[in-house]
Amino acid sequence: MCGIAGFVGRGERSTIEAMTATLVHRGPDAVGFYENVSEGVYLGHRRLSIMDLASGGQPMWTSDGSIGVIFNGEIYNHAELRQELKQVGRCFFTDHSDTEVLLHAYLEWGDDFTNRLNGMWAFVIYDRSRARLFGSRDRFGKKPFYYFENAETFAWASEMTALLRHPKAPRSLSLLSRQKFFAYCCIPAPLTAIENIKKLPAAHSFSFDLRSRHLKIWKYWDFILEPIVRTEESWIEELRHLLDAAVRRRLIADVPLGVFLSGGLDSSAIAALASRHVDTLQSFSIGFTESSFDELPYANRVAQLLKTDHHTETLDLNKALHLLPDIIRHLDEPQGDSSILPTWLLARFTRSHVTVALTGDGGDELFAGYDPFAALHAADMFSRWVPRSLHPAIRLLASHLLPVSHRNLSLDFKIKRFLRGLSYDRPLWCPIWLGALEPDEIRQFFGTNTSTEEIYSEAIDLWDSLRSSSSLVDRTLQFFTKIYLQDGILAKVDRATMMNSLEARSPFLDIEIADFARRLPSQFKLRGRVRKYLLKKALKSLLPAEILHRPKKGFGMPIGAWFQTGALQISEKAARNRQMHHRNLQSDERLFLWCQWVWENWSSAQEGDFL
User: Which candidate, 265, 185, 162, 13, places its Cα nearest to that of 498?
Assistant: First the structure.
């Protein structure tokens, strides 16, 4: 795992050095640079050494120096690709570097070689012979890639803060992106918090012609649901095999490795499979003194069952609160998921023992694990039979009958969120269930007339792009895999782990499992109100029923209580009425207050970079 940076255009060595220096946490083990003043190409790389420790430095070049690469990520099928390339005559100088495989794969198969990769990546290849750059980002967007282009410069980096070290970088905050941040609790690609700095979307590649200065971007893969008919037993057998293979691939490293273990279904599944291939698997969990947020008893139960070398740390969240401002200020882009704090704490704790950790990320998105999936049938019936004109009255009644609670995933929070989403058309259900503000609230808070269609364009476009025959379950799966996973979950995990120089690997996002999930009919993902139906069946022989069927808890934080007691406070005048209502238990404003607090702290820390 590494950090990359580079630019094309006028510049100096000091610029690429400054850009790369901001990424030291992503790669504390080594640094490398390249500059070609005549062509105006500058490359920078920070390395976290995981594979081929002795000869994996970057930028890495072919033997004749014509093709170079800077790469962030891991290619899990690099050994198979290396063997295939050797058979057609390609000669390697490293022992087992996945980076060198990228160079030869590009030479042998051209731009389409990304379709052969199984892994996570963001890279840029400099093809000197053709005077071009070629770059790509992995299928789900595990590895970040930011860029900007103007008449003078094309620049890119693993984090936006690195781009801001370039003197030509745009520096104006985007009002539309901020509105979308409150709509989704994340900023969907290709937008970023800064106008004209963009994220390369997941599953996209680009080419940049050094002569014409033309940038071309295209999608090389898509997560399209194409279910087929098969027996349940055959699905179960295939999933068991694919999960085991995906975990086994991610256990290859030249440094110490372990697993995150929350005691939930997904992380427990990864730990159970990994323990079959490692003599003594190291597992890591953190617990909290606040009982409604603590999952440690479940994690301990699984660790005991699997006989892992289990490491735990119990924290007082109120004492950990003082870490939050510093974490938020070091983010390159605001995060609307408050679990950034426990994820960061877990990563810090884990990094004191190992350099790589396997996670359960992706299981909820691919196999319908989130609470909204269980609510879809009721939501469908409610929207069909309850006239829209009655919705405001029902919401008002619920607000009076259900007292506000700040417990993790409390009943009043779920019911009020459910009713809130159903006040809108179906394409908006998911973002409004998850978001901090509703459309009218966004317009009122920002004092703009931005249309609902513009605020939620990503969700609406995604809904409209799907076949008319797509089920409500499938449409919801597409939202979670294409928007929430990329710009919410994976961005949070990447930042929290890489701030601690820890590499996170996600077996559920293996391309073979993703293709399996695309073919799996929705009734095997959601059966009645049973979420992850087939996954639970496949894991029945590995995990006890108390883990397979335990209620989903999530990695929550008591942000509601923190704002209610004044432990966290916001300064924006326009938001103070909501803060007062929250403190008086008149309404639950936790998500809005969190997003506003994050934006205030993040933007104030970056203030010197903005116009």
Answer: 162
**How many angstroms separate the CA atoms of 351 and 354, rounded?**
5
State both tokens at 150: 């103007």
478 CB burial (10 A radius; 0-12, 13-18, 19+): buried
Strand pairing partners for 133? 126, 208
H or E stretch covering 527 = strand 526-527
At residue 314, does pLDDT exceed 80?
yes
- Across 128-235, the runs of DSSP E, i.e. the strands, are 132-137, 146-149, 154-157, 198-199, 204-209, 215-219
Nearest Cα to Cα of residue 127 among 68, 71, 70 = 68
Kind and range of the H or E run holding 374 = helix 371-385
Q: 526 near 373, Cβ under 8 Å?
A: yes
Amino acid present at 71:
F
- What are the structural domains of the chain? 2-219 (3.60.20.10), 232-368+475-548 (3.40.50.620)
pTM: 0.94
Residue 289's pLDDT is what?
82
Given a contact cutoff of 8 angstroms between Cβ atoms, the answer to whether 323 and 340 are in contact is no
pLDDT tens-digit map of 469-510? 788 999 999 999 999 999 999 999 999 999 999 999 999 999
Q: Quickly count: other Cβ atoms within 10 Å of residue 354's Cβ.
A: 18
Say how far apart CA 207 and CA 210 lie, in whole Å. 10
3-state DSSP percent of the chain in helix, strand and coil, to 5: 45, 15, 35
Kindly provide the b/e burial profile for residues 445-475, where b requires at least 16 CB atoms within 10 angstroms of the residue's own CB. Answer: bbeeebebeebbebbbebbeebeeebbbbbb
